[in-house]
Amino acid sequence: MGTEFEVLLVGPDRGFLEDAAAQVLEEPVRLEEQLSHYRPDSDISDLNLRAPHESVRLEPLLYDLLTRAMRLAAASEGAFDPACGALIRCWGFFRGRGRLPEADAVREALLHTGCGLLTLDPVHRSVRFGREGVQVHLGAVGKGYALDCMADQLRALGVQSALLHGGTSSVYALGGPADGESWEVGLCHPDDRERRLGVVQLRDRALSTSGDYEQFFEVEGRRYSHILDPRTGYPAGGVRSATVVAASAADTDALSTAAFVLGVEGTRRLHTRAPGFAAVLIPEAPGGGCDIAVRIGDIALELG
Amino acid sequence: MNDEQNVSRRDLLRGGGMAAALSLTLPPSVARAMLAAQDPKAAAEEAAKAARNATPVRLAWIGSGVQGQNDMKQLVKLPGVEIVAIADIYEPHIEAARKIAGPNCEVFRDYRKLLERKDIQAVGIATPLYLHAPIAIDAMNARKAVYCEKMMAYTVDQAKDMVRTAERTGALLQVGHQRRYSPDYHHALDLVKKGYFGELTHVRAQWNRNGSWRRAVPGNDPKLERLLNWRLYRSYSRGLMAELGSHQIDVTNWFTGLHPTAVVGIGGIDHYKDGREVFDNVQVVFEYPGGLKLCYQSIQTNAYDDFSEQFMGTKGTLIVSEASGRSMMFRESSAEDFEFAKFSQNKQKVGRRTGILLDAGATTRQDKRERTAGTALANSGVSKNNWALALEDWVDCVRTGRKPFCDGRIGLADTVCVIAANEAMERGSRVRLTDEMFKV
Ligand SMILES: NC(=O)c1ccc[n+]([C@@H]2O[C@H](COP(=O)([O-])OP(=O)(O)OC[C@H]3O[C@@H](n4cnc5c(N)ncnc54)[C@H](O)[C@@H]3O)[C@@H](O)[C@H]2O)c1
């Protein structure tokens, strides 16, 4: 995942918490071995190498994660899509900072993008790709999924209060802090990461943010975000940042990407279909900059 | 340069080589994975054929903790394989394992009851070390094929008993040194055999971490301490030498084709005085025939070096590691450039030196002086991890009756080395390893 994970644990026994922290921090390392797109021997690389030619059986937990990602893809009308590796590669986001591809290359990549190209066999838990060149990429759920697994482990160990994050863009709040009901998580302003846009209260909830300020490249003064719209093949625009709160970090991770791509109206539609989340979007103002924040669903957000 | 070896490798990797693989040094699962990296389409045809003809294999797993779960995750990816039972005594691990094995898997608290199930052909064992031998011996006596996690056994006598039981019953016994199934390690060994590094005189290996090695115990319940932190107590564990060092001693034994004749060492409980009974830092030197030395270290206060094995020869240095992308080779300045030149596409700067990154997928191609696949392949390397390949090969053995590559005798030699190293550190003296010790 190439992501830094951090955990903050609260409790009376420091030694126990240190052991617990070290133990749960092994979880993202283990998942990286399974989900990585860089490691040739990860389950995902194995799938991408073989599934164009044969049915590849997945380990059940990975099969479940993939089917869950596919359900989110369906709910978001393809704004989030786990079968988007070809597109990511085409834009040079796989290993590099990105490049502007030819329109033909984008069209070609689109032919190899989309969950519709995957055939799943639930009996054998196997996956087959409809053509060569399709690539599953769980980058937009992996981080959140790791946080969910870590939170489960902490609960099983009896930890009642913790805050964990992966690369600061996804956070999980377990219980509340020592001195309050819920954890307060600050949202940064898309134009100035030092500035705080607002504070969200979280208790047993996950939060993820997708923003155009996180990863992007520029060509002739134009900014291309790393978040691609799998339906058009081009970087999504119109939103500066999308923050989603829900019970699971895997969901918020994927849904924040979906909300960023869908924009305000699309996210509202998504919310009527799948109401288990709340969101706040910062649309791009007509002349650039940030427009007024739009809330969707019930979010414990205090602006300013 | 050994042409024969080249020809056989080419035959192996270019279609029709599967049968030949059996007679060669590569385990078939490894040969298949290397073929898949080079020609996924051809490999897929073979795999699809194999999957159609795959006879069902009914497995059970005993000890479903961290490694047991990892092993099971590899097994359930294989066509025809079903994990029909597990045995463990700790509920949270049972629950986690059931998510991997599936709802139909029967759960036993007493492994002996599991072994009574006649339909189970094979069992894997990933319990704490002190239970490996009793369980493996019971399983083989019940005519089950066995995959026993490393280190093979808690005592040398137990390891010998395991080998004898395997030979008497005819049960298959594979030991979990998964590096023996690593395409990168096989590739590296091939280069050693071809003489790229000249005469090997020294080996340096380490597995360094920064952390207590202690598992958090739920609710800090003292009743669970020894069950979860068995590694820290001498009646269940042989400490760092067994848990980490055993892998790397095995690699040295394998690559040199030898086993050591003496060992000295110093260890201590110096940093984590938490009631543990095993050393929290170990450093030992093994002497091999011909004067080769293996310097081994495992510490828990600094992770800079993490884990690798460094083979030092008169012409060059080979670093192998299970960590992806860390295997490298370096030329001694006095050695000719020629042998290394053909790997030039994999050059990488490491500090002031230029190293060559080893990758069984890519460098094998270059070794044969062929064009690299370039960017067409997502990854040049092999797409399966070493545990997956080790277990795939074990299942192959269960199906065909073929003897495992990493067998009980390999596990025994490794056990002898680890126990002797611990003894050297405890007694503070030089311990001799006689040929007798390695004999069954
Ligand atoms: N090959 C590798 O790379 C590798 C990696 C890690 C561990 N291992 C080996 O795997 C083994 C297990 O290590 P781990 O980290 O999984 O330990 P663990 O403590 O997580 O798991 C051991 C499991 O055995 C169970 N157990 C204990 N007594 C039992 C009994 N009487 N019957 C059935 N089950 C019992 C425990 O409840 C636990 O679930 C060790 O021998 C270790 O050296 C190998």
Summarize the structure.
Chain A has about 300 residues and is α+β, with helices and mostly antiparallel strands. Chain A has helices at about 15-25, 25-35, 45-50, 60-75, 85-90, 105-110, 140-155, 250-275, and strands at about 5-10, 55, 120, 125-130, 160-165, 170-175, 185-190, 190-200, 205-210, 215-220, 220-225, 240-245, 280-285, 295, 300-304. By secondary structure, chain B is of the alpha/beta class.
Instruction: Say what the CATH topology of the domain at 168-303 in chain A is.
Output: T-fold
Q: What is the number of helices of chain A?
A: 8
Helical proportion of chain B?
40-55%
Topology, number of strands of chain A: 15
Largest sheet: spatial strand order of chain A: 1-5-6-9-12-13-14
Strand order of the largest sheet of chain B: 14-15-13-12-11-7-10-9-8-16
CATH class (first level) name of the domain at 168-303 in chain A: Alpha Beta
- Distance from N terminus to C terminus of chain A (CA atoms, Å) equals 32 Å
> So, CATH architecture of the domain at 181-380 and 418-425 in chain B?
2-Layer Sandwich
CATH homology superfamily name of the domain at 181-380 and 418-425 in chain B: Dihydrodipicolinate Reductase, domain 2
Give Rg of chain B in angstroms.
Answer: 22 Å
* Residues in β-strands, percent of chain B: 15-25%
* Assigned CATH architecture of the domain at 168-303 in chain A: Roll
Tally of helical segments of chain B: 17
* Major sheet details of chain A: 7 strands, antiparallel
Spell out which ligands are present. Answer: nicotinamide-adenine-dinucleotide
Oligomer: heterodimer
Give the class-level CATH name of the domain at 181-380 and 418-425 in chain B: Alpha Beta
Main interface pair?
A-B, 38 and 44 residues
Task: Estimate the strand proportion of chain A.
Answer: 25-35%
